[in-house]
Amino acid sequence: MTTHRLWLYGDNINTDLIFPGKYTYTLKTTEEIAAHALEDLDPTFASGVQPGDVIVAGRNWGVGSSREQGVTALKYAGVNVIIAASFGGLYFRNCINQGVLPIVCPDVSSAVQTGDTIELDVAGATITANGQTFGFTRLSPSVQAIYEAGGLLPMLQTRFRK
């Protein structure tokens, strides 16, 4: 079980709000990309996020385009877990491919505020926040294997080196 500080966001947060499209082909380094994470939604995020922080959101987190920067910007900023009521399908898959854990848990967002802490038990598939415990569905074994390897590319590199 691990404890994480969280950032709370609402419903229908699209990939352009997570990482502005105007930077897609201009920023190259991980530091540059992380510095612009969520800047149009929450200008305090990039300067305040700490490694290990978690995003908790409502419905349709990451809806919109398939640009990977919507995931990598958060990963480079130190976010390795995103909990949402639901995800855009492409965003969910991009999380797995980039080694960021997407957790679908519809009720957590109504029980927390930005700055709260949560306890996350991935093995037990539970989240504890403000005295309440919420269950979530585990990833399938094949998807879990990709996540545990650090993403799709690291998993494939490991497999083909054997």
Structure description:
This protein has one domain (2-161): Aconitase, domain 4. The protein starts with a strand and ends with a helix. The chain has a 7-stranded mixed sheet. Helix 4 (69-77) crosses helix 5 and helix 5 packs across helix 6. A hairpin with a 2-residue loop joins strand 6 (126-129) and strand 7. It is globular. The chain contains 7 helices and 7 strands; from the N terminus they run βαααβαβαββββαα. With 162 residues, the chain is α/β, with parallel strands linked by helices. It is 31% helix and 20% strand.
Shape: globular
Structural class: alpha/beta
Strand content: 15-25%
CATH fold assignment: Aconitase, domain 4
List the helices and strands and how they pair.
Layout: E1 2-8, H1 15-18, H2 30-34, H3 45-48, E2 54-57, H4 69-77, E3 81-84, H5 89-98, E4 101-104, E5 117-121, E6 126-129, E7 132-135, H6 141-148, H7 152-161
Parallel strand pairs: 1-2, 2-3, 3-4
Antiparallel strand pairs: 1-5, 5-6, 6-7
Helix pairs in contact: 4-5, 5-6
